[in-house]
Design a protein that fits this description.
By secondary structure, this protein is α/β, with parallel strands linked by helices. About 35% of the residues lie in helices and about 20% in strands. It has 2 domains: about 170 residues, Thiolase/Chalcone synthase (Peroxisomal Thiolase, Chain A, domain 1); about 150 residues, Thiolase/Chalcone synthase (Peroxisomal Thiolase, Chain A, domain 1, 3-Layer(aba) Sandwich). Its EC number is 2.3.1.180.
Length: about 325
Amino acid sequence: MSTLRYSEIAGVGHYVPERVVTNADIEQLMETTDAWIQERTGIKERRWFTEGVDTTANMGAKAARRALEAAGLTPDDVQLIVFATLSPDYFFPGSGVLLQRELGMKEATPAFDVRNQCSGFIYSLSMADQFIKTGMYDTVLVVGSEIHSSGLDKSTRGRAVSVIFGDGAGAVVLRPSTQEGHGILSTHLHSQGEHAEELIVKEPGSNREGRVDYAIAHEPDMYPYMNGQNVFKHAVVRFPQVIKEALDQNGMQPQDIDMLIPHQANLRITQYVQQKMGLSDDKIFSNIQRYGNTTAASIPIALSEAVQEGKVKRGDLVCLAAFGSGFTWASALIKW
C-alpha cells in the first residue's frame, strides 16, 4: 500500500525594494492627504521599485533564495516553479522562466506563471500542493512578485487606486510529508467572472486590431480601474465564507485558528473580517500599513514576516485567505 503524501512549507522568504514612499511623498504627486489615505486604507507607506535595480523576476529570486536557505535547500533542488504575478517583466515569456534564469537553475526545470491577481498566491499554492501530493515533484518553489508602481496613474485622476499599491516579492518552498494532519490541510478556490470589469486593467487588450495604437488613444484604460465600493461589498462577504469553508472541511472552528494571514487589500476589510470571525488582535497579521497592497506578493510577504517575528510557530493552525480581481477568492488551511 502506498503512503499518503502531504505538502508542508519548508521555508519562507521575502524581499521588498529599498525605496520607501510615504503618504507625504504621495501628497506631492496628487491631491490627497495622509489622513485621507490612512482613513480609507490603513496604509502609511509602501515600497516602490528602482528602475535598473529591481525587476519582477529578480525580486522573486531574492525572496526565493531566502526561502530556500530557510529550508536548507539550493536552487538545484527545485523541481518546479510556480510564479504568481499580474505584472510580468515581459508580455511573454512569463516571469517564471526568468526566475529560473536568475537562480541559475538546472536547464530543464519547468516553470509557469499564474495570473490570478490578489488570489494568485493561494491558487499557486494549491496547484503546487497537488504536484506534491501526486508524487510528481518533491520540491516546488512558489513565488508571488509584483511591480505595480510603474503602471499606476500617479495624478489626482488615479488617486483612489494609486495610493493603495506597492511592490515586493515573497516565496515559499513546498516539500512532501507523510505526517497526517500536518502541512497543507486543504485549499479552496473560487471565481465569479461576471464582475471582471469591476477591478481591471483593460488595455492593451489583444482583442483590438492595432491594439497598441488603440491603447495609446484610450490611455486611461491602461491604468487600473476599481469600483471600490463594490469590491469592498463583495470582499467582506467572500473572505469569511472561504475561511469558514476551510474550517468546516477540517472540522474546526474560528477559535482554532492561531494566525489568519489575509491578502493585504485594505486594513478596513481585514478589520471587518477579524470582527466577523471573532479573532483577537494576536490572531491576525497585517503589514499593509508598511507595504500597501502587493497583490500576489502580499500573503507570502506577510507569512514570511510572521514567521520571522515568531508569530507563526510549529504546530500552529494558519489560515491564508484572499479576494481580488476576477472576482476570485481562495483560502488555505495549514498545520505549521
